[in-house]
Amino acid sequence: MKDLRIVFMGTPDFAVTILKHLVENSYNVVGVITASDKPAGRGRKLNESAVKKYATSVNLPILQPTNLKNEDFHKKLIALKADLQIVVAFRMLPKIVWQMPKYGTFNLHASLLPEYRGAAPIHWAIINGETKTGVTTFFIDDKIDTGEIILQEEIEIKEDETVGSLHDKLMFLGAGLVGKTVDLIATKNVKTTKQPDLEEKSASKLNPENCRINWADSLDNIYNKIRGLNPFPTAWTIIKNDNEEISAKIYAVKKEQEKHNYTFGKIITTKKELKVAVKNGFIIIKEIKLSGKKKMESKSLLNGFTFSLESKML
User: Fold this and answer.
1) For position 165, which CATH number holds?
2) Residue 195 belongs to a domain
3) How far, in Å, CA of 154 to CA of 165, rounded?
4) Dihedral angle over CA of 209, 210, 215, 219, nearest 10
């Protein structure tokens, strides 16, 4: 069973945990495909992907194609003689690549497919106030996240869950599910299920526009959005303080349900507390980062920053 030749494709930390699980449990990983090194930081030094760093540390052969349709890459991939390919947080593969191994190519996706197909499933599950999510393994086909389901595992989303904490839970849950999936394929016990035709809940790419907080939204929606973007890429807003407008990222928050007569976005402060008036309550900000400053607790910010009586979040 452990003789099955596996090629692993992935790039970020999420994928490292799955690759590490395979290696440490003696699965036969014969090669790793990951993103090209990219210049980063002020010195524009080449930055290796998290998967490359780990693969190098355990002496796995690495390929970093810039073009997945390149014939030279295909020759190198064929030379690895994979029986199975596993994809975790990588790019969309051309048919010639995903059809290559005799047992095909499967993907691990961080949602209960068919819900939340796309780039940011963990974020959107929290932003939309879901109470459960999970991980799915499925065989790749020619569309995005539409292939036949192999296995799924469910997990609860707690009311105060952030994308950071849920990401890590799903990462470890996914590592176990990938191992179970490989075992089923190796012993020829796979039974797949066609994805049901449901109304789709999208997990579209995050951008500055859809990460901005709308203070006229409901208390729950604002609360869910902030925790669904904490700590990355982070919900943001503009603070209007007298004649100054300051961009700010909002991290940890609490919600407080209460009727009031304040306008939405109005900032209310005490010596220790920073809160914003919204529909039917307040968002209490615990951690914040003003543009050009370090991330800090609101208590620390209030020691050195004065909000005017008319200050508000835009």
Assistant:
1) 3.40.50.170
2) no
3) 15
4) -170
Please give the pLDDT value at position 41.
66
Task: Output the six-digit token pair for 285.
Answer: 């900000």
Query: If 0-12 CB within 10 Å is exposed, 13-18 middle and 19+ buried, where does residue 16 land?
Result: buried
Indicate whether 161 and 20 sit together in one domain.
yes
Q: Does 94 have pLDDT greater than 70?
A: yes
Dihedral sign from CA coordinates of 90, 95, 97, 100: positive
Closest CA to 235 of 220, 244, 247: 247
Q: How many structural domains compose the chain? A: 2
What percent of the chain is modeled with pLDDT above 70? 98
Cα–Cα dist 100/203, whole Å: 28
pLDDT at 1: 57
173 & 277 share domain: no
Can you tell me the distance from the alpha carbon of 117 to that of 199, in angstroms, rounded to the nearest whole number?
Answer: 11
Tokens representing 115 are: 């819900």
Residue 46 lies in a domain: yes
How far is 65 from 56, CA to CA, in rounded Å?
Answer: 16
Describe the crossing of helices 13-24 and 163-186 by its angle, rounded to 10 degrees: 40
Contacts of 28 (CB under 8 A, 6+ apart): 2, 3, 4, 5, 6
Q: Which residues pair with 254 in a beta bridge?
A: 284
Write out the two tokens for 14.
């999420």
CB 47 within 8 A of CB 38: yes
Amino acid sitting at position 198: L
In this prediction, residue 42 has a pLDDT band, given cuts at 50, 70 and 90, of low
Pairwise CA distance, residues 2 & 22, whole Å: 10
What is the model's pTM?
0.93
Q: What Cα–Cα distance (Å) separates residue 288 from each residue in 130, 221, 268?
A: 25, 19, 15
Q: Which domain holds residue 157?
A: 6-186
- Residue 16 three-state SS: helix
Alpha-carbon gap, residue 9 to 35, rounded angstroms: 9
Same structural domain, 23 and 80:
yes
- Claim to verify: residue 105 and residue 245 sit in the same structural domain: no
Residue 101 is given by DSSP the state: S
